[in-house]
Amino acid sequence: MGIVRLDQETQKAELEEFRRMLLSCAAVHRRKDDDGFRGQENAVPAGNGDVLDRLVCVTSGVSYLGIAIVNQLLVNGYSVRIIVDNEEDVEKLREMGNSGEMRLNNSVVEVFMAKLTEVESLTEAFDGCRGVFHTAAFVDPAGLSGYSKAMADIEVNASKNVIKACGLSPSVRNCVLTSSLLTCIWRENPLDETSHIIDHKCWSDESVCLNKKLWYALGKLRAEKAAWDIAKQTGLKLATICPGLITGSKFYERNPTSTIAYLKGAQEMYTYGLLATVDIDKLAKAHVRIFEDMKKTASGRYICFDQVIEREDEVEELARDTGINASSITGGASCSNRPRFELSNAKLTRLMLRTRRCPIE
């Protein structure tokens, strides 16, 4: 079974958003140049390698999250190689390159066609890249929620192939994999546990995901575990980010499959105080920051969220943004009588508060 592509309308919208992002980045760089900062932000310190040290690869770089990560990488002076899986997208992105839209000062956006089903194809795509951001999101039109049980297997195999390819590549030093907060919160009889803190050390129970038919959670859980197993075998330095529901401008319109799939089980998450969201831009910044700090101390898993849905107005806003009835989110539960868990992103918070180092070393 191959990777199921996004529908044409979503693809078109994401490519247009990618174009706007590039133009916006170009405008920012021009303003900095005009203000006399040319070359300062993106300068490579002496003795720290050539331009290839700034080249990184992003899978699904024209997806909702992929675009945001590419944006942050370009702003921070990286050159980015985007992985696409079809010739049509290659041609559309190549047109942007020919028009000069994909060249920002010393930063360059490259497009590479590769199959997430083929390790050899990915290894070739990663050649020369210092790091890889694996952010792939898949769509299954046959799935009730857009993400069926079969998609979990596809996601696992894709992650395995990406990590294997990273391990085989002589240039790749680090990999950042986008997982999900759902890999931490789904457990059997959670209230029987001594600690009610959910942090990066917590793992969901596969049997719970299977019994509740939480296919998105299952796919992310198995994919992350498989990635860690392969990384340990190959010696690849890996970090994983476990974000809450990704929100931001038109997030449901631009990322409907993952949104609906994430919210399966929303009533239970809300009841336990585990329904969390994260802004797309903050999540993208976290990806880049973790990657930059991996050469120092960053490692392991990081939970990423900036809001826990608790108040009635927060529920109504989420319902409004997604078109889901508020009652489908709360199930009639109130904030006053529900058992409480505490989500902790302290590990990521500490990292983000550190003085930012130069990304090139």
From TrEMBL:
SUPFAM superfamilies: NAD(P)-binding Rossmann-fold domains. The keyword Cell inner membrane does not apply. GO terms for molecular function: oxidoreductase activity, acting on the CH-OH group of donors, NAD or NADP as acceptor. It comes from the Eukaryota. One of its GO terms (biological process) is steroid biosynthetic process. It holds the Pfam family 3Beta_HSD. Transmembrane segments: none annotated. Residues 58-181 form the 3-beta hydroxysteroid dehydrogenase/isomerase domain. InterPro entries: 3Beta_OHSteriod_DH/Estase, NAD(P)-bd_dom_sf, NAD(P)_dehydrat-like. Keywords: NADP, Oxidoreductase. Belongs to the 3-beta-HSD family. This is Cinnamoyl-CoA reductase-like SNL6. The lineage of its organism: Eukaryota, Viridiplantae, Streptophyta, Embryophyta, Tracheophyta.
